[in-house]
Design goal:
The chain is α+β, with helices and mostly antiparallel strands and 140 residues long. It contains four helices and five strands, in the order βββββαααα.
């Protein structure tokens, strides 16, 4: 998984029922929002050939809401986390994010929702898997 505007990524494995982070620090990743070190803006799952029997694109998606659910926070905690992420997505300076970057802000400004982000990620993954270079990609 790749959190946008944060400083690290982690690996998850499918246990037959759900994807599970290998790093125990990432199981409750949402709770890290309260550490005071800045926010992330989204969590993206990027598939690999080891993601399953089908295309890696099948495991590539926007998974932010899954991480909020996994944290099992109180209603007050959830509202605070959602507000912090929303503020970071609206911050044109990037100062409220841990990495001081603007990835989430740019997606927000572009008007992309979770479904659109997943569609674009999967399309990019399929292009990558097919060996297409960025300059060779032609959209219909």
């Amino acid at each position: 998984c790749c959190p946008l505007d944060w400083d690290h990524v982690w690996t998850e494995v499918f246990d037959g029922e759900a994807w599970q982070p290998l790093d125990p620090n990432c199981v409750n990743f949402v709770r890290r929002l309260g550490e005071g070190i800045g926010s992330w803006t989204r969590v993206l799952a990027i598939g690999t050939p080891g993601s399953g029997p089908n295309s890696p694109a099948d495991s590539t998606e926007e998974v932010t809401q899954a991480y909020f659910a996994r944290a099992e926070g109180s209603q007050e905690e959830l509202q605070n986390w959602l507000a912090q992420v929303a503020a970071a997505r609206s911050d044109a300076s990037g100062a409220s994010t841990q990495a001081r970057t603007l990835c989430g802000y740019m997606l927000e400004r572009a008007g992309f929702d979770d479904e659109q982000i997943t569609d674009e990620l999967r399309s990019a993954q399929l292009d990558f898997d097919a060996g297409r270079e960025l300059w060779d990609i032609v959209r219909e």
